[in-house]
Amino acid sequence: MHLENKKVGIIGTGKMGQSLLRGIIRAGKAKPANIYASDVYEPALQALKDELGINVSTNNFDTVDNSDLIILAVKPQILRNVLRGFADHINENKLIISIAAGVPAATIEEELHEDTRVIRVMPNIAATVGEAASAVSAGKNASAEDAEVAMEIFSSMGSAALVPEHLMDAVTGVSGSGPAYIFPVIEAMADGGVLEGLDRESAQKLAAQTVLGAAKMVLETKKHPAELKDMVTSPAGTTIHGVHALEKNGIRAAFTDAVMASAKRSREMGK
């Protein structure tokens, strides 16, 4: 399956579903006329239709029947019921892509026909600004080409990596939940700036750009984060004093524990 001229369906138009819709259109991966979206909340659907020019419906059958590939962007807790609602409308020609956190491809395959082609993806909310970190894994019936289609879609709104499905809970802990770990960091850095006399707007802008710049250095230089840290920590300087304060307060253990707790919850949700 090549994405060009294929019809794309999205079931669930919450924050992530809307981010995916906008990302796909912004990247030119599908024409609005070839995109179908469904949800239970009609006013939001109509707003998306007016904004993006896509096809919308409160009936999932309309999305499923008109689409070559269907992205499931509903909450994990209701995914089984949603799948049962349109299982008889799925055939071997349709590709299913699920972004439901913690739900294995096998669970989706069980609810649909056993030969259904399923791709599981873990993106994050940064898809909203075209900077998502997404992991892609293929179900037992999905082909390499199916995985390439998913990679094409999710690479268009950030970066994507192919991973074995048994590591998707770890992915959830690192990048799926990761933005929520970083937002308080930016807020706290800005608070420190305000405490030292900066106005709130300037402090927040400087903190956010600092996080963005540091991340870009890791990605573009491909240097180990520790090596980059050493580049800016001169002997007895300001930065090493700041780093010492972070280490004294257990920053490494706090972030590691956050990843592990999120991954654990992802495993629980998949049972």
Automatic annotation (TrEMBL):
It comes from the Archaea. Its EC number is 1.5.1.2. The keyword Amino-acid biosynthesis applies. One of its GO terms (biological process) is L-proline biosynthetic process. It is found in: Cytoplasm. GO terms for molecular function: pyrroline-5-carboxylate reductase activity. One of its GO terms (cellular component) is cytoplasm. NADPH binds at N60. Residues 7-102 form the Pyrroline-5-carboxylate reductase catalytic N-terminal domain. The keyword Oxidoreductase applies. Keywords: Amino-acid biosynthesis, Cytoplasm, NADP, Oxidoreductase, Proline biosynthesis. PROSITE patterns: P5CR. InterPro entries: 6-PGluconate_DH-like_C_sf, NAD(P)-bd_dom_sf, P5C_Rdtase_cat_N, P5CR-like_CS, P5CR_dimer, Pyrroline-COOH_reductase. Its main location: cytoplasm. Pathway: Amino-acid biosynthesis; L-proline biosynthesis; L-proline from L-glutamate 5-semialdehyde: step 1/1. It catalyses: L-proline + NAD(+) = (S)-1-pyrroline-5-carboxylate + NADH + 2 H(+); L-proline + NADP(+) = (S)-1-pyrroline-5-carboxylate + NADPH + 2 H(+). NADP(+) binds at I11, G12, T13, G14, K15, M16, A73, V74, K75, P76. Catalyzes the reduction of 1-pyrroline-5-carboxylate (PCA) to L-proline. Belongs to the pyrroline-5-carboxylate reductase family. This is Pyrroline-5-carboxylate reductase. It comes from Methanohalophilus halophilus.
